[in-house]
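Please supply some protein, with fold tokens.
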Amino acid sequence: MASVEHCAACHNQHTTVDQWRAAPEERRGENCLACHMPEVRREAGRVGRDHSFRASHDLVALQSAVRLAGGNDAEGVWVEVENSGAGHHFPTDERSRAADVQVRWQDGQGGWSDWENLYRFRQPYRDETHLQDTLLPAAATWLGRPAPPPGAQSGEARLLYRTNPYLPDAEARELHRVPLKP
């Protein structure tokens, strides 16, 4: 079970194991189990493996895979997503996985705009030839520069994770949210 080849038999159909092999060595860990089945202490002090298989349905694992930051510099507002914890691309394993960076703005009266999509991380289905693979490699950082509308007093950015790219926002999982100042 500890062999990467064992996991690759199924999980490399979407190149997850190839992504892991191409990741910086310090990010990969020993094997797939190091992150997805970490060691745990059981009754009487026995050491074993966590069999919940932390991955795309575990909020803590998802949050630890990426970091969201935002700010304002001489060029304006910025939003950044860093693959800070995954030893492979984010999101990965299924072409149906997607992560969206969204922004919204608050006006002078305290009203908020709707959330706007700023960027999507996703590996397209084979028949979606009009789309590009935008997965975020291990240790890589994406930087976006949203344009606040005139009169915006503040804003927010959030990172939503979807197990299906067509899920509505209400069914996606919010991994992180940061304030923005125009």
In short: The mean pLDDT is 92. DSSP finds five helices and nine strands in the chain. The helical segments are 4-11, 16-22, 25-28, 32-36, 59-65.
